Amino acid sequence: MIRKVRPHITQNEDLIFERSSPGKIGYQLPALDVPAVDPKAALGSDNVRDEIADFPEVSEVEVIRHFTRLSTWNYAIDLGMYPLGSCTMKYNPRVNELVARLDGMAWAHPYQPEELSQGSMEVVAQLEQALLEITGLDAVTLQPAAGAHGELTGILLVRALLESRGNPRKRILVPDSAHGTNPATAMMAGYTVGNIKSNAKGLMDVEQLARIVDEDVAAVMVTNPSTLGVFEENIVQCAEILHAKGAMLYMDGANMNALVGLARPGDFGVDVMHINLHKTFSTPHGGGGPGGGPVAVTKALEPFLPTPRLAKKGADWTWNYDLPQSIGRVRAFYGNFGVLVRALAYIMAHGGPGLRNATIDALLNANYIRYKLAPYFDLPYDSPNMHEVVFSDQRQAKKGVRTGDMAKRLIDYGFHPYTVSFPTIVHGALMIEPTETESKMELDLFIDAMISIAKEVDDEPELLKNAPHLTRTKRVDETGAARRPVLRWNPK
Ligand SMILES: *Cc1c(COP(=O)(O)O)cnc(C)c1O
Questions:
Q1: Alpha-carbon distance 271 to 297, whole Å?
Q2: I want to staple 160 with a disulfide (CB 3.0 to 4.6 A). Which of 27, 181, 304, 326 is the partner?
């Protein structure tokens, strides 16, 4: 029998509402030395509340301790490996943070006059230049705030170009291995979505593509390497098929971590692509925070890029708003500037050869994991893989253990889970992307954990079915949380 105690630091932190007691506040202000004003008179009674129902009343130190304790519950890349596939959860070098926090960068204001913004504009110009070199394309916008936002921008550019040629067309084709944002983007841009099947190697079926591309198809959206971590080896042929019919090749560049310094999409026929700065170029991500989804395009699409665009006026930079064919703004001001600064810092700190080495290390790490785990887990597509590897739970499923069960068990071993059940064309997928920033020592720990889990499935499958066991909270009802979310705290 364990004696019930109330520990000083509880591992199951109360809700902040449970710490509340009436009248507690987190500030002390001196007495007013100006005449008091009735806030309702000053702001209008519609804008002033008498009270906020159930608002917690706590002191400053209670707020600090509450959130600090909660923060220790979090898994983070600074704590250990984060093998989520498709997410490129690499370590974010501190030098990027240092540069982004420099006063001139952090305090730059978008309404500052151009004469006083030349340094920030130079950052934008240099990042544009670097991304053009990396992608092999002709022009780039840094405005979009994330990958999906870049996709929408890119497809609106395609639409604008086709419209200027007389017909925006009707359909966008998306391989069945695509990220869900691709078909969603096509729909938002006013297209219907057609499906391209993957062949036995996990590649786009080129013969099917050749059959279905007609004058109604505006573009194909392809992720390369695909969400299976496989390079589309027929990409040049795909581009030729599309171009012959006046259609465009859109590349989802979320997996650029597998290509930077090795291959340039502009060289293999891509017309338009987005890059996830918060994946490939190291900005911290995962909490829905600011990101960057630059869109790079060929010359033909350049006139349609969002306004304003950077231009030279004598020796100075200026913003050019006079772009009659532009699709307009896609975001306030010039994009998430802090993310742009981090990306440029990352690129410059690595240099060309360093970026290439990072890519090679990312591929090496993923292939090392594949080689070590292949005896234990089913590999549904046996094509050479790039920066990530996708197994299936086919063998473990025979014991009733699914990918989600093993992912939960991985938490007991101190790792963040891999990506579960994606891509959807792999039944019971385990998608693993180590990135270049993990050492061999960390990879070996991860591999040992996975092998140990595979053995547990053979010996003690029941153990897996209600994992995790060593966490504060046991397995939660994820379906219930999604279907019937309780978003309000209710004391009654
Ligand atoms: C992450 C990702 C996206 C979406 O990017 P966001 O920045 O999350 O909007 C699109 N496609 C693929 C393949 C991705 O991995």
A1: 6
A2: 304
Residue with CA closest to ligand 1 atom 4: 147
Q: Which residues of the chain have pLDDT under 70?
A: 1-11, 488-492
> Is the domain of 308 the same as that of 366?
no
Number of structural domains (the chain) is: 3
Q: What is the DSSP string of 188-217?
A: HTT-EEEEE-B-TTSSB-HHHHHHH--TTE
Buried b (16+ CB within 10 A) or exposed e, 263-281: bbbbebbbbbbbbbbbbbb
The reported pTM is 0.90
Q: What is the model's pLDDT at position 2?
A: 60
In a domain, 238, yes or no: yes
Given the CA of residue 149, which atom of ligand 1 is nearest to it? 9
Interacting residues of 183 by C-beta distance below 8 A, sequence separation 6+: 172, 174, 193
Asked if the structure places residue 215 within a domain, the reply is yes
Which domain CATH number covers 362?
3.90.1150.10
CA 67 to centroid of ligand 1, rounded, Å: 29
Q: Please indicate, yes or no, if residue 86 is contained in any of the structural domains.
A: no
The predicted pLDDT at position 11 comes to 66
Q: Is residue 80 part of a domain?
A: no
| Ligand 1 midpoint to CA 298 (Å) | 22
